[in-house]
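My hope is that you will study the protein record below before we discuss the fold together.
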Amino acid sequence: MSDILLNTIPEGIEAIKRGELVVVVDDEDRENEGDFIVASEKITPGIINFMTIHGRGLICVALTEKRCKELDLELMVGKNTSSHETQFTVSVDAIHPEVTTGISTNDRAITIKMLVNQETKPEHLGRPGHIFPLKAKNRGVLRRSGHTEAAVDLARLAGLYPSGVLVEIMNDDGTMARLPQLVEIAKKFNLKLIAIKDLIAYLLQSESLIERGEEVVLPTHFGDFKIIPFKQKSNGVEHIALIKGEWQQGEPILTRVHSSCMTGDIFGSLRCECGDQLHKAMHLIEKEGKGVIVYMMQEGRGIGLFNKIAAYKLQDQGLDTVDANLHLGFNADERDYGVGAQILRSLGVKKMKLLTNNPVKRVGLEGYGLEVVQVIPLEVEPNEHNKKYLETKRDRMGHFLRKIE
């Protein structure tokens, strides 16, 4: 992507403000696709027709969590097993005198306009229908680097209602259009072409998610570290950074992004490998002489301690760690990496040698504009209590684990 000249984010925002379509591409390691995106309040039947003919994908409307709640738009499924956790709600049609079947370009434009009209109530929408609302994550692309969040952020930055219409772009033969084809499509129709990673970088310069605390020396059994607390502005949750040594700008740094595990990190639980991984990371960073551990308060892969213990109970009854989460109504992994990425940036880390067995963690951090130059597995010896848990992480979550037989 670096070899292709993209438009700047301000250029994309201005195009959105004018009511134009913009081609938005995501990371090559994520979906590796492009969408046509336009602000919802600027939608017309003509734009719907263009998206249908030249996009060929599913036309959706990205809405904020607040708006979905106002319109009583429930999620399409209770257990989201989508690979990218796209939050589809129930589909809708406008209940309106001009709407007939709901599928015509005029009908769909009316439905979209009603979704962003503050006068619209839940009873003004028929369910199911021909428009597919998507619930965007709060904090947009700084929390989830998807097209849904990009659509909301772009409209908001343009000073418009925070909602966008989007459709995947496919080639004439029905295959997904990748970056080289997307460049040609943007040129053909004189559209701006922007990247989600650039939108993230743009927002990171202007919208801080964190407040940095004081820095002190923390002597440990593994050596002396500096400890810095960070407070998440949106909810007050506090995270920690442990730092060793100093580094030059652009230098790849040994880095561990570690999710809190009270049972493993504090009580030495044998049900997981978390405590051993944390200690091994501290040892490796001490040996290296420089590095960072970002300790994120994301207990139980983001479901919290209360639900984590409930998941343990289900595992005792025969479910594995993935199915236990799903049974409780959560995804297998509820974590996001936007806050962690901003903490790393605030510490001057842009390139890293990442200590992890989890491929999703690499993709998650790279989605926020950080560069992982090397992945260093952080394996520890399994035991009789965590063997099944580790097998599930290897077989169902793609973790790099070679010591499990």
Observations:
- The longest strand covers residues 125-135.
- DSSP finds 15 helices and 15 strands in the chain.
